[in-house]
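note to self — DONT lose this again. spent like an hour looking for the file last time. sequence + predicted structure for the chain T wanted, 175 res
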Amino acid sequence: MKTYLGKMRGQRIKRARVGWQDALWSWIGAFTGMAVICWLSSAWLSQQLLIVGSFGATSVLIYAAPESPFAQPSHVLFGSMLSASIGVACYQLLGASPLSMSLAVSLSVLGMQLTHTVHPPGAAAALIAVAGGGSIHQLGWWYPLLPIGAGSVVMLVIAILVNNLARHRRYPRYW
């Protein structure tokens, strides 16, 4: 029991400080990525079709932690689309119930782990597919493609362009 409880204390680690230049590059990327998605949604699609809450968390990963395995393109794109598909399936089978929401998140975690495409915002995309309301439910099987797939591609293109402008950044680490 002592060992079990002892694991909950965590470890002391030295945290690396983020410099203002790195923080500025992260801001530029996050702002540009979301601005382009919002612009495309309103100007090109004449609706809020590309704007999904999970993209906020994706922005943190691909712009502020571009070296993270969870931020790599295969994880962002395939992890998100797989999870969104799982969420759609759960909604269509069980409706917007607590069981469906729980299954959408847990099955998306399982699916991403088994396919080696873990992207934490993917679980949010699965949850949004179930709990997102009528406008999301009307998309049905289009939801994993538009907004999730298309929005992920837009954000990845911008992440590749912006992150590689800074000399000290390299993105992606791998495809």
